[in-house]
């Protein structure tokens, strides 16, 4: 990258053109674009290093489930040509090395932004951190991540437990030694499903506490051959262009089959599912055009996966417990490496807590259904307060002292997932109301960062000081996001997309479905002089 070595730190100035909160992939690219615009910029990051998700989630088995050649930046041709990925889906250490290769300058680490207040007289934001020394900035860009506030359930007795407690999203940097230990894992979403096979290998005994059985498709991870990588690199622009049209398509080798699952006979349907199951990855959800739209079509995919689970898991009772009965994909589909087979191991037990929640944590373990499971360590793979949790954890106040908590008391309202009425010059990267978590997120992040950087540049050229989403634009946008979701099967179950994993959180479908039309809309808004925003 051009500015990798050249950048000089501006520490310790206190007045900035832009402050960026977070140094994950969003913050790093925003920093790069801001420097390119000649802005005086500072990034604040809680962690001691860059990488965000990949800095915090160091649990065994953590890896991307978008293929490496796609789950990477495309803005820098030299970077995408020089970087070599070793596997089809990179592991956490490799993705973290990649993030470190990208940048470290102008970032103040181990610094939590606590408050961000708008001063109407100066039309600037005042930013306070846990390190003192408030700073001010014309623009604040929240690159705080959609999955960065861990969800730690409030189970009675947690403080009594004599062993170790870990959360997959805040994994110790030195790793955890499970050798000879009896381990309990709570949670069977993507993180649990990745970690469980490895914890099973590393521990003496593993008990998995499952509240909802989850669909998982084989990742079919493998080393990424040099030839295969060279082929993609030779036509990276075309590969990216195609991938941008389908950013939630993770295998271009087997693109969307537009046929309805209900328009083919059983044999043909089975052949299609079987081929995609073997290919591995999210291409499975592309087996037919209506899996995300029609519950009957979707049910055929669910039945196929249940059939596979019954083949893979030897004990019929365990297999039945592992069979999901939800709509496939309405909780984010998981990719696995040997997850179901793990339950054939003699040292692994599955405890179904769907009808009988965990009663309490005791000194010795977990109590549920009138039984105590003796444990030396408990792993919470219980996910995140997604999309809004991290933003609402800060004291963000816009015009008239309006807090973000007040503004979003009935659910998150934004315009394009980028701007919030009452909060001028504050942008959210992959904010609620944008496609974000329903896409290959690096693609979405780059699109948002480019839009924000181009907007700041246009404002400067046209002599504008502030930009603020209008209430009308926000209301219409929220209605649009809901209307799109309601045409699909997505709202059909209790997912984190809806905030349903967090007790008391307002139930609203937060991301927007449909990336290409969203990009068109953003471009149109900009071309029409930032329609839906007020500029002063
Ligand atoms: P993050 O990486 O979450 O970075 C946000 C940063 O902001 C964090 O470092 C955090 O410490 C910092 N921060 C937050 N609040 C503050 C504050 N108040 N003050 C200072 N700093 C703050 N997406 C995909 O598309 N494909 C995948 O395969 C994929 N795999 C994933 C695997 C895991 C285990 C998880 C949890 C998520 C995965 N995701 C995946 C989603 C992933 O979050 C995004 O792909 C991407 O890494 C998000 O980057 P980001 O910079 O927006 O946010
Ligand atoms: P998650 O999908 O929200 O899964 C959390 C799990 O914990 C669920 O099984 C949930 O059960 C369970 N749980 C939550 N609270 C509980 C409680 N009080 N008692 C018992 N069980 C409880 O979280 P995640 O697995 O960390 O994944 C979050 C997202 O991060 C993913 O959807 C994905 O976007 C991303 N991610 C991606 C990868 C990857 O493969 N690249 C890996 C990890 C994460 P219920 O279903 O009943 O709520």
Structure description:
Mean pLDDT is 94; it is low at 1-11. A hairpin with a 2-residue loop joins β14 and β15. The protein contains 15 helices and 20 strands. The strands form 5 sheets. Strands 1, 2, 3, 4, 5, 6, 17 and 18 form an 8-stranded mixed sheet that branches. Strands 7-16-8-9-12 form a 5-stranded parallel sheet, covered by helices on one side. By secondary structure, the protein is an alpha/beta fold. Helices cover 30% and strands 16% of the residues. It starts with 14 loop residues before the first strand and ends with a strand. The radius of gyration is 23 Å and the shape is globular. The structure holds flavin-adenine dinucleotide and NADP nicotinamide-adenine-dinucleotide phosphate. Flavin-adenine dinucleotide binds at residues 21-27, 44-47, 52-53, 55, 57, 62, 64-66, 71, 112-113, 143-148, 191, 390, 394, 429-430, 440-441, 445.
Q: What is the topology?
A:
Blueprint (H helix, E strand, L loop, with lengths): L14 E7 L3 H12 L4 E4 L8 H4 L20 H6 L9 H11 L4 E2 L4 E7 L4 E6 L5 E8 L21 E4 L14 E5 L3 H13 L2 E6 L5 E3 L7 H9 L1 H10 L20 H14 L15 H18 L3 H7 L11 E3 L11 E5 L7 E2 L3 E4 L2 E4 L2 E4 L8 H4 L2 E3 L6 H4 L18 E3 L12 H22 L4 E3 L1 H16 L28 H13 L5 E3 L1
The structure holds flavin-adenine dinucleotide and NADP nicotinamide-adenine-dinucleotide phosphate.
């Amino acid at each position: 990258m051009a500015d990798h070595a050249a950048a000089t730190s501006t520490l310790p100035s206190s007045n900035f053109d832009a402050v960026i909160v977070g140094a994950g992939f969003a913050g790093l690219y925003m920093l790069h674009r801001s420097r390119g615009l000649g802005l005086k910029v500072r990034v604040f990051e809680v962690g001691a290093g860059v990488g965000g998700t990949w800095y915090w989630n160091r649990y065994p088995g953590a890896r991307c489930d978008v293929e490496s050649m796609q789950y990477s930046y495309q803005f820098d041709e030299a970077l995408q040509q020089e970087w070599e990925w070793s596997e089809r889906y990179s592991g956490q250490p490799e993705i973290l090395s990649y993030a470190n290769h990208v940048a470290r300058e102008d970032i103040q680490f181990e610094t939590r932004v606590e408050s961000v207040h708008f001063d109407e007289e100066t039309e600037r934001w005042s930013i306070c951190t846990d390190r003192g020394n408030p700073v001010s900035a014309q623009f604040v860009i929240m690159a705080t991540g959609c999955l960065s506030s861990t969800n730690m359930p409030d189970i009675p007795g947690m403080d009594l437990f004599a062993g170790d407690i870990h959360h997959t999203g805040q994994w110790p940097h030195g790793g955890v030694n499970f050798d000879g230990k009896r381990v309990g894992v709570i949670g069977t979403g993507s993180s649990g499903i990745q970690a469980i096979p490895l914890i099973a290998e590393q521990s003496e005994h593993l008990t998995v506490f499952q509240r909802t059985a989850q669909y998982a498709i084989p990742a079919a991870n493998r080393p990424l051959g040099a030839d295969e990588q060279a082929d993609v690199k030779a036509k990276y622009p075309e590969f990216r262009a195609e991938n941008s049209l389908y950013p939630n398509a993770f295998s271009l080798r087997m693109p969307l089959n537009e046929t309805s699952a209900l328009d083919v006979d059983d044999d043909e349907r089975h052949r299609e599912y079987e081929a995609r199951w073997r290919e591995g990855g999210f291409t499975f959800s592309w087996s037919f055009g209506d899996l995300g739209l029609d519950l009957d079509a979707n049910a055929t995919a669910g039945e196929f996966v249940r059939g596979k689970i019954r083949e893979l898991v030897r004990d019929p009772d365990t297999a039945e417990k592992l069979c999901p009965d939800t709509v496939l994909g309405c909780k984010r589909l998981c990719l696995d490496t040997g997850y179901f087979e793990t339950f054939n191991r003699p040292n692994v037990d599955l405890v179904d807590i769907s009808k009988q929640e965990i009663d309490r944590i005791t000194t010795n373990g977990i109590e549920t259904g009138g039984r105590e499971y003796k444990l030396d360590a408990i792993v919470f793979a219980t996910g995140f307060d997604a999309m809004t949790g991290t933003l609402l954890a800060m004291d963000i106040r816009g015009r008239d002292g309006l807090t973000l908590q007040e503004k979003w008391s009935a659910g998150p309202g934004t315009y394009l997932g980028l701007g919030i009425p009452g909060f001028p010059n504050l942008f959210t990267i992959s904010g609620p109301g944008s496609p974000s978590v329903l896409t290959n997120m690096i693609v979405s992040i780059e699109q948002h960062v480019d839009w924000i950087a181009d907007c700041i540049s246009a404002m400067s050229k046209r002599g504008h000081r502030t930009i603020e989403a209008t209430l009308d634009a926000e209301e219409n946008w929220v209605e649009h996001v809901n209307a799109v979701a309601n045409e699909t099967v997505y709202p059909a179950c209790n997912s984190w997309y809806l905030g349903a994993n967090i007790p008391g959180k307002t139930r609203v479908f937060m991301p927007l479905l449909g990336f290409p039309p969203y990009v068109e809309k953003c471009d149109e808004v900009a071309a029409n002089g930032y329609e839906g925003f007020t500029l002063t």
